[in-house]
Design goal:
The protein is an alpha+beta fold. 22% of the residues lie in helices and 42% in strands. It has a four-stranded mixed beta sheet with strand order 1-5-6-8, with no helix packed on it. The longest helix has 21 residues.
Length: 146
């Protein structure tokens, strides 16, 4: 009996470790996505969405035709060399509502003084493999060294 309890406790600890390491929890689904190059961004996003939200640091989603696109913007930056990349997306169910959590990495230029001194608006766009727009969207970002 004591060995069974220890085995169950060890299994629970291992499962908890997997949840922490891999971000697995009930009601959470990893979302497949395809990064969209700057040249492939739909005209509606380029002409209407990006100009409206480029000054903000945020994640948002929009529907173009039948596809769902996720956009992450970093706001206005003083020089070239700032980057943003979408790393992972997770769809989570919260009280009968869907929340898309977007994980992004941000990189700043190592030497901003040697970069072109022009205002930039770093953004990343991805086509998400989800059926419809989520009720809410949340951005989780981390800074990385270029």
């Amino acid at each position: 009996m004591k060995k069974e309890i220890i085995a169950i406790a060890v299994a629970a600890v291992v499962l908890a470790g997997l949840i922490v390491v891999f971000g697995i929890s009930s009601g959470e689904t990893r979302v497949e996505f395809t990064k969209v190059s700057e040249k492939e961004v739909p005209r509606e996003i380029e002409a209407e969405i990006l100009p409206e939200y480029r000054d903000l640091e945020r994640a948002l989603a929009c529907k173009v035709d039948e596809d769902i696109y996720v956009i992450v913007t970093r706001g206005e930056k003083p020089t070239a060399g700032y980057e943003v990349e979408i790393e992972k997306m997770v769809l989570e169910s919260r009280e009968d509502k869907s929340c898309l959590i977007v994980y992004a990495s941000f990189a700043d230029p190592a030497d901003a003084d040697n970069m072109a001194q022009v205002k930039t608006y770093p953004a990343a766009v991805a086509k998400a493999d989800i059926a419809g727009l989520p009720d809410t969207i949340e951005l989780r970002s981390e800074f990385v060294q270029p």
